[in-house]
Amino acid sequence: MKFAPSALQTADDSADTGTRQIRDALRDAIVERRLSPGTKLSESDVGNLFNVSRTLVRAALQALSYEGLVSVEKNRGAFVAYPSPEEARQIFAARRLVEPGILREAATRITPSQIWQLRHLLLEEGRLMGERGQTARRAEIKASGDFHLTLAAISGNVIMQRFMDELVARSSLVIALYGQSTISSCGHSEHGNIVAAIERNDLDEACRLMLDHIAHIEADLDLRERRGFNLKEALEL
């Protein structure tokens, strides 16, 4: 016998959905570098933008703090995380340790359709590199990160996939703060070379290319801060 969900359960489900929507919107704005490190995330401002209670906003900010994307400070509020140079080095050190292993695991499982999926991502990334404007730039940033996340998904390891999701997001935050060039933070041609090595089943070369690729991203960092949008602009509300 089935029972209709209670009003309390329905309210809880609605609150969870609202929290996820706020978290996802803020997360996308941070990862796509529309919100700069150090930007204050006022509970009242975010609540007004989404027309929700501060309770839902607080839950969303807490979820982002677990991912290292938001810093919640007692008596001061929440801010987009401002990673230190040492934290930036640790993030890329973690990527050098993790991504070759993910690549090898993905290569043992990859199918022709998944190779096509990676090639499609490369085509989209290349197309976006030829476009101008903030919208195209944000889309290019996302497509670039999606390449690494797709390899993690192909590996079949859900834990590593979640770990890479956090590493890619935190890398984007570091690049927003310390990146010194206007070129793609994640070289398009290097992605293509990695896929070609996987197709040849030359995994040692693919891993070497991945390590070089991560090193090139890190080498483009300095200590200059990049200006971002304000909260309302970044969320495009």
In short:
With 237 residues, the protein is mainly α.
Q: What's the multimeric state?
A: single chain
Main sheet: which strands, in order across?
1-3-2
Provide the CATH top-level class of the largest domain.
Mainly Alpha
Number of domains: 2
Strand count: 3
Name the structural class: mainly alpha
The geometry reads as globular
Largest sheet: 3 strands, antiparallel
Output the helix-strand order: HEHHEEHHHHHHH
CATH architecture identity of the largest domain: Up-down Bundle
Number of helical runs? 10
Query: What portion of the residues fall into strands of 2 or more residues?
Result: under 5%
CATH superfamily of the largest domain: GntR ligand-binding domain-like
Radius of gyration: 19 Å
Distance between the termini: 45 Å
- Roughly what is the average pLDDT, rounded to an integer? 85
**Helicity level:** 55-70%
CATH topology assignment of the largest domain:
Four Helix Bundle (Hemerythrin (Met), subunit A)
In terms of per-residue confidence, which ranges show pLDDT below 50 for 5 or more consecutive residues? none
Question: How would you explain this protein's 3D organization?
Answer:
The chain is mainly alpha-helical. The protein has 2 domains: 10-82, Arc Repressor Mutant, subunit A; 85-219, Four Helix Bundle (Hemerythrin (Met), subunit A) (Up-down Bundle), CATH 1.20.120.530. It contains 10 helices and 3 strands; from the N terminus they run H-E-H-H-E-E-H-H-H-H-H-H-H. It has helices spanning 7-31, 43-50, 54-66, 85-109, 112-129, 134-155, 158-178, 188-199, 203-219, 231-234, and strands at residues 40-41, 70-73, 77-80. Strands 1-3-2 form a 3-stranded antiparallel β-sheet. Strand 2 and strand 3 (77-80) form a beta hairpin. Helix 5 (112-129) packs antiparallel against helix 6 (134-155) and helix 6 (134-155) packs antiparallel against helix 7 (158-178). It starts with 6 loop residues before the first helix and ends with a helix.
